[in-house]
Amino acid sequence: MIELPDNFSALTKPDLFEAFKIQLKKDFENSGLNSDFVSKVMPDYGLILQMVAIEVNAVIKQSSTKLNELLYRIDISELQIKKLSKLNPEADFIDIVAELIIKRELQKVVIRQMFKE
Questions:
Q1: Distance between CA atoms of residues 85 and 83, nearest Å
Q2: What pLDDT digit, counting tens, does each position of 54-79 carry?
Q3: Tens digit of pLDDT for each residue in 23-48?
Q4: Which end of the chain is more exposed for a tag (fewer CB within 10 A), N or C?
Q5: What does the pLDDT read at residue 117?
Q6: Burial environment of residue 1 by CB neighbours within 10 A (0 to 12, 13 to 18, 19 or more)
Q7: 88: left (phi over 0), alpha (psi -120 to 50) or beta
């Protein structure tokens, strides 16, 4: 699997950022979740993390089943969550899930872009 830089520099490239937003919106919608927040997302990792964390929190409050559906659709495993939690024991569960969502969505976009070229 392709590793992205920790600073998520792909978010600063306009074409990749737009593709990231489209992918994020699609996966939230296909999981039966609200995706309105995506239109407000700016190419700033900290703000994206905050917005995705707010949505993850809302999903958790709504239903743990919905969270599982979202994670399955995006392709995030329980093992990935446990691994990142172990590496960052002080981090909040919601922030860990939000970070994994952003990373995986970016991976999808970057991989798709690589195969286009």
A1: 5
A2: 999 999 998 889 999 999 999 999 99
A3: 999 999 999 999 999 999 998 888 99
A4: C
A5: 66
A6: exposed
A7: beta
The full set of domain ranges for the chain reads 9-112
Q: Which amino acid is at 56?
A: V
CA dihedral (46, 57, 100, 52) positive or negative: negative
In the structure encoding, which two tokens stand for residue 77, read together? Answer: 């495993």
Q: How far is Cα 116 from Cα 51, in angstroms, rounded to an integer? A: 29
Q: Which residues contact 10 (CB under 8 A, 6 or more apart)?
A: 4, 16, 17, 20, 106, 109, 110
CA 86, CA 115: separation in Å to the nearest integer?
A: 33
